[in-house]
């Protein structure tokens, strides 16, 4: 059961990352503007005397293939660096504590390092910025306007969500507390269950 759940989680992350890479290539690499650029340079090779003004409208359109290439470079670089740091504890370099520290924080370190590389070394490439919403995302519902059917529907959704959180915590706990990890039971072993109980309550 734990292996199947871990497989589903890994597949979900892979599909989500691949979908974002595909969307970036569709929006920046395989655009009509890029095809116009390709046609323009093919014509230039066929006839060096072609007038630039005949295709000047193509040159004014945006084509950001460099952004897509940097996107997949940073994505694969993050995976490689995270895997390298995670396996660093098997190397004879540094001390045992430092190797364990690098292995434990392999994911955040790889994300931070590749983010700095993309921001500093490739600053001339125009990357897509994250949308910023200054309006409050959480708005309280006026309970006087809520109908009885809506209360029943939200109750069913709330029960399903609480069951999902409970199952997720227990399965993740079973994976982490596997005998292969050789973990010791600490003082705060059941704090996660206490937090789940508060959330469900």
TrEMBL record:
<dbReference type="GO" id="GO:0005452">
    <property type="term" value="F:solute:inorganic anion antiporter activity"/>
</dbReference>
<keyword id="KW-0812">Transmembrane</keyword>
<dbReference type="GO" id="GO:0006820">
    <property type="term" value="P:monoatomic anion transport"/>
</dbReference>
<protein>
    <recommendedName>
        <fullName>Bicarbonate transporter-like transmembrane domain-containing protein</fullName>
    </recommendedName>
</protein>
<keyword id="KW-0472">Membrane</keyword>
<keyword id="KW-0732">Signal</keyword>
<feature type="transmembrane region" description="Helical">
    <location>
        <begin position="147"/>
        <end position="167"/>
    </location>
</feature>
<dbReference type="Pfam" id="PF00955">
    <property type="entry name" value="HCO3_cotransp"/>
</dbReference>
<dbReference type="GO" id="GO:0050801">
    <property type="term" value="P:monoatomic ion homeostasis"/>
</dbReference>
<feature type="transmembrane region" description="Helical">
    <location>
        <begin position="106"/>
        <end position="127"/>
    </location>
</feature>
<keyword id="KW-1133">Transmembrane helix</keyword>
<dbReference type="InterPro" id="IPR011531">
    <property type="entry name" value="HCO3_transpt-like_TM_dom"/>
</dbReference>
<feature type="domain" description="Bicarbonate transporter-like transmembrane">
    <location>
        <begin position="1"/>
        <end position="200"/>
    </location>
</feature>
<dbReference type="InterPro" id="IPR003020">
    <property type="entry name" value="HCO3_transpt_euk"/>
</dbReference>
<dbReference type="GO" id="GO:0016323">
    <property type="term" value="C:basolateral plasma membrane"/>
</dbReference>
<feature type="transmembrane region" description="Helical">
    <location>
        <begin position="68"/>
        <end position="86"/>
    </location>
</feature>
<feature type="signal peptide">
    <location>
        <begin position="1"/>
        <end position="19"/>
    </location>
</feature>
